[in-house]
Design brief:
- With 84 residues, the chain is α/β, with parallel strands linked by helices.
- Helix content is 35%, strand content 24%.
- Strands 1-5-4-2-3 form a five-stranded parallel sheet, with helices on one face.
- Helix 1 links the parallel strand 2 and strand 3.
- The longest helix is centred in the C-terminal third of the chain and has 12 residues, at 63-74.
- The chain is globular, with a radius of gyration of 11 Å.
- The protein starts with a strand and ends with a strand.
């Protein structure tokens, strides 16, 4: 599983997705991130992601982003966990 620090992320690398619940995202988030809650992404990943593009996944504690990266890598997506 690929991991990087949020300090090493740059927008040119790919899309940063915050997997937090909408309410938590509204309270605090990295301004470079878009919000797709974990459950929503996992149920509909084919609607949100393309296999030929890189994605960087983050969440408040790293639990959901770790799980999502493991599953999405298995399905052939270019995903990296971003640790805050």
């Amino acid at each position: 599983m690929k991991r990087i620090s949020i300090n090493n992320y740059h927008e040119s690398m790919g899309t940063l997705i915050d997997l937090s619940k909408n309410i938590d995202y509204q309270i605090e988030h990295d301004p470079r991130a878009i919000n797709i809650p974990y459950q929503q992404l996992m149920l509909h990943y084919e609607e949100y992601l393309k296999k030929d593009k890189p994605y960087y996944l983050t969440c408040s504690k790293g639990i959901h982003s770790s799980k999502a990266v493991a599953v999405l890598e298995y399905f052939g997506y270019d995903v990296t966990q971003v640790i805050k």
